[in-house]
Amino acid sequence: MIRTVSIVPSILTDNKQDYRAQVEKINTFTRRVQIDVTDGIFAPTQTLDITNVWWPKNWDADLHLMVSKPSEHMDTVLKLGPSLCILHAEASEDLMPSFEMLKNAGIKVGVALLPSTFPGNVKQYIEAADHVLIFAGQLGVQGSQADLMQMEKIPLVRNMKPELEIGWDGGANITNIRAIAHADVDVINVGSAISGSPDPAQTFDELVAEIDKNGVVI
To answer: Which CATH number does 6-212 carry?
Structure first.
């Protein structure tokens, strides 16, 4: 029996008008959304600057910072007040001070692991976190192919801290979402499969229905 798995749409854009359009579409069918922010250094692409990020008051927003120095963005993050802030284990600085600032503000802490990162090498971050994001796509880009070999990290992370919420980010779509769900994750972030759909709400419902199906997962 698998856990209850949440489908969380993600927003990644460098355009204010597109950002608003995505927010308005997503707001019609869900309240939990991941917002991706890059700095053009840690990730090769540049998104909308974090100072231009916003979301409806009724959202549970997950803020995913693909940035080299998260500490430089903490003041803005604290003002935004997301439910969860996800930082990358591979950032160029110690994450613990930023984790402490977030926790003191009542914001849940997440740590993302790039495909090359072995969970045992960042155990201190995993043990301090509320959420671990298994990153299995291409950094700063939507629509990349999922690296399903990253599923091997999930039991390693789960054994370190069983109560953790574990998320998956990268390449999730209707063809693989049931396999990902059965790999013992709690959250699956979905980007282009929803944002690129002519009917995002219908696609969201189809993804949820696919997870709920019983039978063999290939």
So the answer is: 3.20.20.70
Q: How many of the other CB atoms lie within 10 Å of CB of 15?
A: 11
Say how many C-beta atoms besides its own lie within 10 A of residue 49's C-beta.
15
Of 80, 73, 146, nearest to 107 by C-alpha is: 80
Q: Which residues of 196-205 are buried (b: 16+ CB within 10 A; e: fewer)?
A: ebeebeebbe
- Where along the chain do its domains lie? 6-212
Q: What is the pLDDT of residue 207?
A: 97
What confidence tens digit (pLDDT) does each residue in 5-55 have? 999 999 999 999 999 999 999 999 999 999 999 999 999 899 999 999 999
| 71, amino acid identity | S
CA distance 198 to 212: 23
